[in-house]
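ok so dumb question maybe but i'm new to this and my supervisor (M.) told me to 'just get the structure for MOB1A kinase' and walked off. so i did the thing. is this what she meant?? sequence i used:
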Amino acid sequence: VKGLTGNVFCLVSGSRSSKTFKPKKNIPEGSHQYELLKHAEATLGSGNLRQAVMLPEGEDLNEWIAVNTVDFFNQINMLYGTITEFCTEASCPVMSAGPRYEYHWADGTNIKKPIKCSAPKYIDYLMTWVQDQLDDETLFPSKIGVPFPKNFMSVAKTILKRLFRVYAHIYHQHFDSVMRLQEEAHLNTSFKHFIFFVQEFNLIDRRELAPLQELIEKLGSKDR
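this is what came out, is it supposed to look like this??
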């Protein structure tokens, strides 16, 4: 199964890893956003992730963040899809990232008061919520000339903050399964790309990144 970031993010084919957790969100071919995605793929292929996340010259920041947010949703979707059989109500009765961090779900509309739920339930809520935002043309316009809303950046930040929690859960609770499936290289590359991107545009508060702070520092130091 090939991820959107072509040659860098490519999952091992096989019945287990081809399970996609949620339908893949496609960027329409021929659109400007599709061209931006192709640019992202080409720079990722060079292996320089710091350079790959930078805003291409003359491009709109909102559009660049939108394209990459869709791409990260697809990547995390696929990564989590490979370990869903190990992430169950029994194995993960709470949504956590190690013993010190537990997440309760609220979306502000359907569920206003945060609820405690299992990791698979939480991640299902989270990915469904993200997909609804990405499918909303008023938030993520796909047509050329349609402006992004004034609250776009705050919506994008919330999406990325929540997607980070899926990485945090996978690393803390399921890394042994990831290693058994020999997918740690894919997970690490995807996460490193994600972290460099959110750092480049200051999209996630440092406190939110605390569950994986050591790993983030390690990934960053390797790249200096």
